[in-house]
Amino acid sequence: MHEVLPEGGVIRKLWIGETAKYREHVLRLDPDSRHSRFAGGVSDDFIRNYVELTAGLDIVVHGFFVNGMMRGAAELRPLGARFQRQAEAAISVEKPWQSHGVGSALLRRTLLAARNRGFRLLHMACLADNQRMQQLARKFDAELSFDFGGVVGEVESSRPTPLSVMREMMSDSHGFATAMLELQSRMLRA
Ligand SMILES: CC(C)(COP(=O)(O)OP(=O)(O)OC[C@H]1O[C@@H](n2cnc3c(N)ncnc32)[C@H](O)[C@@H]1OP(=O)(O)O)[C@@H](O)C(=O)NCCC(=O)NCCS
Fold it and tell me: What does the DSSP assignment read for 54-105?
C-alpha cells in the first residue's frame, strides 16, 4: 500500500504500553481540533479517562508517528454485541500535520482493519460544520445523513479476502520494521 506522508512520518498500529503516546497526542490537539474530535468541549481530565478506557477495550488504534511522537490517530471501536458488525471510527491529526494527507491515510488503514474484522458498517460522527472531515469521508464514498445537527457517515465495508488480510499484515510488518530502525538510530545518536 503506497501512501504519500509528510517526511519522516509513518503509520502503524499502537502497541501495548504506548497508551501514554496516544494520551499526549490527544492532549496536544489545539482547541478547535479537540472540539471537532469530541463534538464539543472536553477537559484534560476527560481525555485522560477516555484514553485510559480505550486501553482496556477491544479497540484498534493506528498512529501517525514522526520521530517517535504520535501526531495523528485513528480509532476503530466496535459498537458491541447489540450492534454486531458495526463499529465507530474517529480520527485526529495535530494542526501542523493537517491537510497533508495524513487523515486520508489513517482512514484508509482503518477501513482495511474494519473490513478484515468483519465490520460491515462504520459510523463516523462529526459536527455539521466539520467540512474537512466530511470531505475526507466523501473520498471514501461515505453516505452522509444529518442527525440532530451532527453528521453520521456510514461506510459499507467490503467482505474480507485473503488479499485484504495480507495487505493489513504487510502494513503491520512495515510499521514494525520502521519503528525498530528509528529506535536503533535514536539509540545510536544518544
Ligand atoms: C478531519 C481531519 C482528521 C482530517 O485530517 P487531514 O490530515 O487534515 O486530512 P487530509 O489532509 O487527508 O485531507 C482530507 C480532505 O480534506 C479536505 N481538506 C483538507 N484541508 C482542508 C481545509 N483546510 N478545509 C476544508 N477541507 C480541507 C481536502 O479536500 C482533503 O481531500 P483531498 O485530498 O481530496 O483534497 C483533521 O483535520 C483533524 O484532526 N481535525 C480535528 C479532529 C476532527 O475533526 N476529527 C473528525 C471527527 S472524528
Answer: HHHSS-EEEEEEETTEEEEEEEEEE--GGGTTEEEEEEEE-GGGTTTTHHHH
| Distance (Å) from CA 137 to ligand 1 centroid | 9
- Give phi and psi for 126, each to the nearest 5: -150, 165
Domains of the chain plus CATH, in order, are 9-189 (3.40.630.30)
Going residue by residue through the chain, which has 190 residues, state the pLDDT in tens, using 9 for 90 and above: 567 888 889 999 998 889 999 999 999 999 999 999 998 889 999 999 999 888 777 899 999 999 999 999 999 999 888 888 888 889 999 999 999 999 999 998 998 898 888 887 888 877 878 888 878 877 776 555 545 445 666 666 677 777 777 788 777 777 666 666 666 666 666 6
- Torsion angle, CA of 52/55/57/59, rounded to 10 degrees? 120
> pTM of the entire structure?
0.85
Four-residue CA torsion sign, 96, 55, 42, 81: positive
Ligand 1 touching residue 98 (CB < 6 A): yes
Which residue of 132, 135, 152 sits with most ligand 1 atoms within 8 Å of its CB, as the best mutation to test the pocket? Answer: 132
> Closest ligand 1 atom, CA of 94?
39
C-alpha 164/C-alpha 168 separation (Å) is 6
Closest protein CA for atom 9 of ligand 1? 103
